[in-house]
Amino acid sequence: MQRRTLIAGATALLAAAGCAGLDTVAVEVSSQGDWPAGRKPGRYAIERLPSQQSQTVEQERIEAAALPALAAAGFVPAPLDEADFVVQVGARRFELARRDPYGPFYWRSDWWFYGGHRPFFHGPGLGYGHVADFPDVQREAAILIRDRRGQRIVYETRATLVTRWSSDALLPVLFDAAMKDFPQQALSPRTVVVPLPRRS
Asked: Which stretch of 94-98, 183-187, 190-194 has the lowest confidence by average pLDDT?
C-alpha cells in the first residue's frame, strides 16, 4: 500500500506540469511575424487594451511575469515617446475536466475532454481502478510586438499549457517559452521545453 501511494504521488507530480521532466515543462507555442532582417530588439513600451485598463491589478501582475522574457530577448523598457516598439501582453486561464473511467493509473489514448468550471471528484478517494474526474487548467500567455513608427505587427507569439498545477508561478514560464525562438520563424505549433521555477 505504501509503495502504491508513492507511485501515485510521483504520477501526480509529473502530471501537474506537463511531461517533459521533474524540472522542465513542455509548452505548445505558436508564433508568427515579419521581423525585419538584421534588426535588433530595442526600447519598448507596454500598451494596454481598454479591457485591460479596467483590470489594473491583474494586468500589472501579467506584465510583471512577461518582463523577464522580454529582457532575455534583448528588449529594454522605455517611455512611449522614446520606444521603438509597442508591446501588448495578455494571459488567461480556464478549467477543463478530464474523465478517466479506468482510474489514475491506467493510461489510455481514448480519453475524452469536456468543458468544466470547477474541479470535482467522484467517490471517497483515489485508488487503482477508481472512476474519477481530474481537473485540468489550461493556461495561455501571449505577446504582440508592433513597430511604433509604422504600427506594423512584427511578431506575435502564444504559449499554451494544460496542467494540474494552478500556481501563478507558471506565468513567467509560459512567457519564456513564447519568446524562446524569437525572432526566428519556427514551426507553429511546436513543443518548447523550458525549466520550471525553482522553489525557494
From this structure: 94-98
**Cell numbers for 149:** 513608427
CA atoms within 13 A on the CB side of 129: 0
| E strand segments, 18-103 | 24-33, 43-46, 76-77, 85-100
Contact 11, 104 (CB under 8 A): yes
> Which bin fits 21, alpha (ψ -120 to 50), beta or left (φ > 0)?
left
Angle at the Cα of 81 (from 75 to 84), degrees rounded to 5? Answer: 35
Residue type (1 letter), 182: F
Distance of alpha carbon 58 from alpha carbon 40, whole angstroms: 30
- State which of 115-119, 124-128, 148-152, 161-165 shows the largest mean pLDDT: 148-152
